[in-house]
What we know:
- By secondary structure, the protein is of the alpha+beta class.
- Helix content is 52%, strand content 12%.
- Strand 2 (86-91) and strand 3 form a beta hairpin.
Amino acid sequence: MDATAGDTAVKTDTVASSGPCARWPAENRAIIRQIMDRAGDKWSALVIATLNDGPLRYTDLLRRIPGISQRMLTLTLRQLHRDGLITRTPYAEVPPRVEYNLTPSASPSTTSWCL
């Protein structure tokens, strides 16, 4: 069983050395792949693109992203926040206000290396 896992790792490194991922440092490939998998899903990509213009409230995001349900927006925002791609800033006001914004690591100028 260990030999199979080792063979898989070798195959992955071989593929990565010849494709668009070849310029990624070998020690960072797993982390970069996780980021790409997360940020590359449909709703995450749309949320990130929408937040590119600046901070927005939940309802503004819901209005600007066609077809997204409240549940999917909530799940996507939680995951992006957990992954460190967006910030969530609550304000102590009545009614309560929360704004979402891109972190510097998720801004288009920082992630241009992915393209």
